[in-house]
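Last lecture ended with a question: if I hand you only a sequence, what can you say about the shape of the protein? Today we answer it with a concrete record. The protein is Major facilitator superfamily (MFS) profile domain-containing protein. Below, first the input exactly as provided, then the predicted structure, then a couple of comments.
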Amino acid sequence: MILGGFLFLIGAVLNGIAFNVAMLYIGRVFLGVGVGFASQSVPLYLSEMAPCMYRGRLNVLFQLMITIGILIANLVNYGSDKIKAGWGWRLSLALAAVPALIVVLGASFLPDTPNYLIDSNKHKEAKAVLKRIRGTDDIDEEYNDISLASEASKLVNDPWKKILERKYRPHIIMAALLPCLQQLTGINVVMFYAPVLFKTLGFGNEASLASAVITGGVNVAATFVSVALVDRKGRRFLLIEGALQMFIFQVIVGSLIWAKFGTSGVAVVSQPYAIGVVFCICCFVAGFAWSWVLWLG
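The predicted structure:
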């Protein structure tokens, strides 16, 4: 987490002070690597620290914080666009250093997980951490469960070879395909390039940024649905429902845009028509927000 936050901080600074396109590219590389570290380490940390009965909800909170961050970024872009001096884009990019700095400083005070400490034969420290995060001295049962799981994992010879055995192939395929298909849904294109998409639909610059704020707000609101339902309905139900919803509205959005723009990319779109497309995009985003919780432990 600390390394990821530090790399992201470097990327934000480079983008904020960039005086050529190369610096922007390099900054984006640092941002991407930093996000990669954080997106893998934080869910794992939460899973190992959370009580088993709350693990699902606490991991969905990770997704919730991501959606809130996207919404804040949209609001920052909306505000920085109003700066007429020509440096608003620098402010927009440089402000990414704020959450990165919070991660670096905050993670420095976090304890290691009991699982990691037990795997490292630091049993005394593991018990101390369990007592601290559970708020009770009655941690023997949980400590023993973690210890048994750790001992069992150490008995496995050549784990990387074993995981490739035939009986584990369905698990490997599922673990690889779900994140891949998540990206192929196009959600990142919609969220990252929403202002460009809305401009194409005929919105002005300010209106396109405002529409991006709306989709960001829908993203946050829909994630609260996931927080409420993930442990009650289960991950599978949310994933199936969300995938169907995304498919339906993605087809509708594509059809509406194709009907107006065709292959020319140029058309006059009425306001009601454009609002209808935005509504369908919001439904697509909502389907993603309450279903694709792939990092849940």
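Comments.
1. The radius of gyration is 22 Å.
2. DSSP finds 15 helices and no strands in the chain.
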